[in-house]
Specification:
With about 270 residues, this protein is mainly alpha-helical. The protein contains 7 helices and 4 strands. About 20% of the residues are buried.
Length: about 270
């Protein structure tokens, strides 16, 4: 089962890095692994890029438009209790034969002025509803920004931890194991050491390299997630719209922190 697990890890690493980059970083018995040169990432720069370019915030843009519509509706609701001034005028001839004043037919004009006073209807319900919609839409924008910042901070923390683990393997763990294996092998060739000691040193080196491969996979996964601005869960169902308010969107799903995929976990269980 250990061989199956090692082959699965090897296939995953080659798929992520490519065959040439894989052997240059993992190393062989003749050539030690090379150091990983990951670019320096700053959380502030990543947050700015994510807030500017992440498509998830397109939902926030829709929420902003909902805020503007709600504000316009609020102004309209506030103005509805104010009565309108009604003004009407008329001008024409009076053709009545029996004039009340007994005078001749002549031109006549009239002016009407009126106003409707809402004594009991102040439109309080619509005003309160519109204000609630505004608060809901503004809160949705803030929620999306905070969710993105939280996901980015979590991914950045996993990335820094994975980078520290990889660097530790490169500087403190693999070189002594490689040197010990070479020393035992040289002493065995000189007939000064037993072959089981060489096998133990070789097995230890291979186990450490397997762990190093897992650490590299974890590092690359977190780096790709960060560089992709947390673009994960693209096949998930879209969020549902709420009434006038914000958008009920699912939280940005995170990538599981760890080195094993489904096949690797299955191999571990079999082992």
């Amino acid at each position: 089962m250990t061989k199956i697990y090692s082959r699965v890890v090897l296939a995953a690493m080659i798929l992520v890095l490519g065959i040439g980059s894989f052997f240059s970083q993992v190393g062989t018995e003749e050539n030690p692994p090379s150091t990983t040169s990951e670019p320096t990432l700053r959380l502030e720069d990543l947050e700015r890029m994510a807030l500017q370019n992440n498509p998830t915030l397109a939902q926030a843009a829709a929420a902003v438009r909902a805020v503007e519509r709600a504000r316009a509706a609020l102004e309209r609701a506030k103005s509805q209790p104010t009565p309108d001034l009604l003004l009407r005028g008329a001008f024409g001839y009076n053709f009545e034969e029996l004039d009340a004043l007994g005078g001749p037919t002549k031109l006549e004009g009239s002016i009407e002025v009126g106003i409707r006073v809402p004594l009991f209807d102040r439109n309080q319900g619509n005003v309160a509803t519109t204000r609630a919609d505004i608060e809901c839409a503004e809160g949705e924008v803030r929620r999306l920004e905070l969710a993105l910042r939280a996901s980015l901070a979590s991914a950045f923390a996993r990335y820094t931890n994975a980078l520290a683990i990889v660097q530790r393997y490169q500087k403190d763990i693999l070189p002594p194991a490689q040197k010990a294996y070479e020393l035992y092998l040289a002493r065995f060739k000189e007939m000064a050491a037993a072959y089981p000691q060489v096998l133990i040193a070789q097995r230890t080196l291979f186990q450490l390299r397997t762990e190093y491969i897992n650490a590299l996979v974890d590092l690359r996964q977190n780096a790709v997630q960060i560089r992709g601005l947390l673009l994960v869960g693209g096949l998930n169902a879209p969020g549902e719209l709420r009434s006038e308010g914000g958008i009920e969107a699912s939280e940005t799903p995170g990538v599981k922190s760890g080195m094993q995929g489904a096949g690797i976990r299955e191999a571990q269980e079999q082992r």
